[in-house]
Amino acid sequence: MTPLKLVARQHLDQATVVTINEELKVGDREIIVMAGPCAVESKELLLAAAYAVKEGGARVLRGGAFKPRTSPYAFQGLMEEGLKLLAETRRETGLPVVTEVMDTRDLELVAEYADILQIGSRNMQNFALLKEAGRIGKPILLKRGLAATIEEWLLAAEYIMSQGNDQIILCERGIRTFETATRNTLDLSAVAVVKEVSHLPVIVDPSHATGRWQLVAAMAKGAIAAGADGLLIEVHPNPAEALCDGPQSLTPANFHKLMQDLQKIAQAIGREIAI
Amino acid sequence: MTPLKLVARQHLDQATVVTINEELKVGDREIIVMAGPCAVESKELLLAAAYAVKEGGARVLRGGAFKPRTSPYAFQGLMEEGLKLLAETRRETGLPVVTEVMDTRDLELVAEYADILQIGSRNMQNFALLKEAGRIGKPILLKRGLAATIEEWLLAAEYIMSQGNDQIILCERGIRTFETATRNTLDLSAVAVVKEVSHLPVIVDPSHATGRWQLVAAMAKGAIAAGADGLLIEVHPNPAEALCDGPQSLTPANFHKLMQDLQKIAQAIGREIAI
Amino acid sequence: MTPLKLVARQHLDQATVVTINEELKVGDREIIVMAGPCAVESKELLLAAAYAVKEGGARVLRGGAFKPRTSPYAFQGLMEEGLKLLAETRRETGLPVVTEVMDTRDLELVAEYADILQIGSRNMQNFALLKEAGRIGKPILLKRGLAATIEEWLLAAEYIMSQGNDQIILCERGIRTFETATRNTLDLSAVAVVKEVSHLPVIVDPSHATGRWQLVAAMAKGAIAAGADGLLIEVHPNPAEALCDGPQSLTPANFHKLMQDLQKIAQAIGREIAI
Amino acid sequence: MTPLKLVARQHLDQATVVTINEELKVGDREIIVMAGPCAVESKELLLAAAYAVKEGGARVLRGGAFKPRTSPYAFQGLMEEGLKLLAETRRETGLPVVTEVMDTRDLELVAEYADILQIGSRNMQNFALLKEAGRIGKPILLKRGLAATIEEWLLAAEYIMSQGNDQIILCERGIRTFETATRNTLDLSAVAVVKEVSHLPVIVDPSHATGRWQLVAAMAKGAIAAGADGLLIEVHPNPAEALCDGPQSLTPANFHKLMQDLQKIAQAIGREIAI
């Protein structure tokens, strides 16, 4: 992995800690859980989801306003309206917000509302977007591309960091393989490799990785034990009626149960889930 | 493949023929070869490459002005300056130009200079870019994503077509697999599948697929025999000194030899290489 | 590819030509087509298939007596009875026979009846079987494993050759990838790579590679144009009622049509289909 | 996953517990660690390794006498001599032994010496071997094939169980993907899927999965947290001089440290590492 410079472990004496709203720290001893619905659907649902995940111990609310959908005929998200709902919900619940940006032209708009800007798998090598993300003063959640090697993923982070922004959270979310029992194949060894070669924090998204809520708890536990600095989990008040990714969303009750289990594992490895 | 609508074979009585500059036809009986250097490097090199490929029978000049590079420290292309060189070279040689666009903000600029706009593998699911490409009155060359299923690739074309632009040329360029003897694994069966389920023309890029010039001729021949409507081939006057992708570039001499071989195969299947 | 020794191009001055029954040559200028049903089902069906493929120009009859099936509850083949039917059919039609061997204990039995012993994808790294195949005086058809690199495949051939048998025909039959539109992904670049690094002949099985008869013709043509020394094609008198792999089997009529098309492509590259 | 019968969860009221030497239980509340060198190299090294892993808490000694090697020129194992050394070492240390069998002809011989017979990745679809393994009265450790879907892996177990042997331990050991930072990609979600659809116990081999000892601890922890019933870990008294797989072998000291960490995670999920 020679071409890594700024994101390489050798570049820094210590692990990078990403600070959200001058308060929440990702990459420190405490493990951060981000949770919420796949997409922002309505004010009521978002608020219900936000309170549910907050109660369970999530410290960041996730929710998509701009949705990358395989088909142009699928629900594309509420866009700016969705961003406003996220901001309102943050005001009411106090939870900072992570949401995706898909186009350089939307970056400033999304940055106005979001606390963390997500660059999704499909845009991991949208180099124009990466460069712009490097010029903005907000933390970036950089998901690994569907078929990106760990080296390519870190070089995508290098694009951001080379423009002056070191507030980068990496997110492993499964890679594409021949296996069809899961939506993607969660590559937890990527967590260990990132820890070895980079100083950046890395979290795991077990929801997109598996595509089935029944598998989310096992993979969330595995991720914490393997050293992840956080999790990104889909939770929906009513998964059966979700406009997207219902089959991989936990109910609030399952999420609460999971958080308790995760705390025990975090403690077993000398860390703590921030709640 | 149910979600396909506009790009589905059922939608049209006949194959879509993409017309370049009201003259050149892609998707008709004649097979079109597009060739040139990976990147626009200088006026002299581009012109030399253009004359070389024209002499060999290429009908379109390829050359990147905006280059998607894995590392931020690699040559990123000459950008607008490169576009101008492409336009100059077109004036001198008469060859229409295909070049990549990577960002919605650059689309109009690139469209000013290019005859065909290429959307590369890494941006195959940059949905904002696809939508804008659908609103512009120019042919689009849509490369298959590194790890995109054929269905996802066709749905990316559906994004473009749903915005009103049906001038789409699909381009198979290899997918990512475990095999390391080649840069990617050229999936020629994708050509046959596309012909079966869609009315859009499909061409093949054996240069990026194999990553080694020694394998380009065999794969170009295979592509024509398998039914491809064209080829996209990297040719450089001096591959050893190319700023990018030298190892996969043919010399002009090898390109000329290849074109003669391809003509025989085209005729064997009742087609013709347009020269 | 340093570890190759006996199978490496450097080891020999010329391409290895595999001779079947002191008569048929694989790896020479003439291209050999092997065809027949997936499995030996009955004397009548096998004979009908054999005459049909012979009439079309096939020079070798394929047919499985021992069948490697994913489920223990699927038809496992007629075993020794199937071998006897193959031998009878050879007597009547004059076509030499290629059939699979799956277990070291069956090797001598299969060798008694078959002219070419096939080692299938699933056994490509059954090293005990490879070693025994190296000690027997019969040509071996060695299929590439589902997820074998080209180097591993050639090293499997090295196992055979290191025991004294150089009569090895390699067979590319598709590798496992994320794509689901085809049963496997046919890697035609493997043909070109093998030709570059080894002296052994290589053929292509478009039937198993694609899994759908509709795609077989395009891939067979692509294979010949890319330089394959032969083809292995499934043909069944009545694909709809085949006990295995019906969806990928050609009818005799489609096979005859294909053979005529292949002859033209063979001639375009200066070769000939042996008929 | 419809074709599963005997191995399906629906077939049994409870999880299958595999019993080794009427004493050790795999698939029960206690988690079993199997450890030792890749290959049996000499009496001294094997004994040293055995005492080292026993001291760390391993309950089964692993070690290959028959080695499946990609190249015929690599060390192929000590074969029967290796089996005898394993049996001697068992006598001295009391540790039961797991070792690989690669050929139907060797099955009885290996069964004479081994307590658990391992069927390796490359032989996961060696159906003759699976059937014989089903007829022998010993536990079978069935590794997942390099490119086997979970369904195919379970159907391989179905082959064994359909012959009367239900003493099957599944072992996830990484699948082949495009990622090259690790030897294979460990698919921990396979553990969760197996637990969902089958009653068979499943363990994880983090050594072969990652190929680098630096990553073994993280993946071993992840595996336990995700629900694995055991681990298979390579430990060598002197990894730098191992005849095979040195780079993925732990030193005894690292193994002891790991076992202490694993115990805490096991307890966090309500289980216990058997020591």
TrEMBL record, chains A, B, C, D:
The keyword Transferase applies. One of its GO terms (molecular function) is aldehyde-lyase activity. Coiled coil: none annotated. GO terms for biological process: aromatic amino acid family biosynthetic process. Keywords: Transferase. SUPFAM superfamilies: Aldolase (SSF51569). InterPro entries: Aldolase_TIM, Class-I_DAHP_synthase, DAHP1/KDSA, DAHP_syn_2. Transmembrane segments: none annotated. Residues 18-266 form the DAHP synthetase I/KDSA domain. NCBIfam families: DAHP_synth_Bsub, PRK08673.1, PRK12595.1. This is 3-deoxy-D-arabinoheptulosonate-7-phosphate synthase. It comes from Carboxydocella sporoproducens DSM 16521.
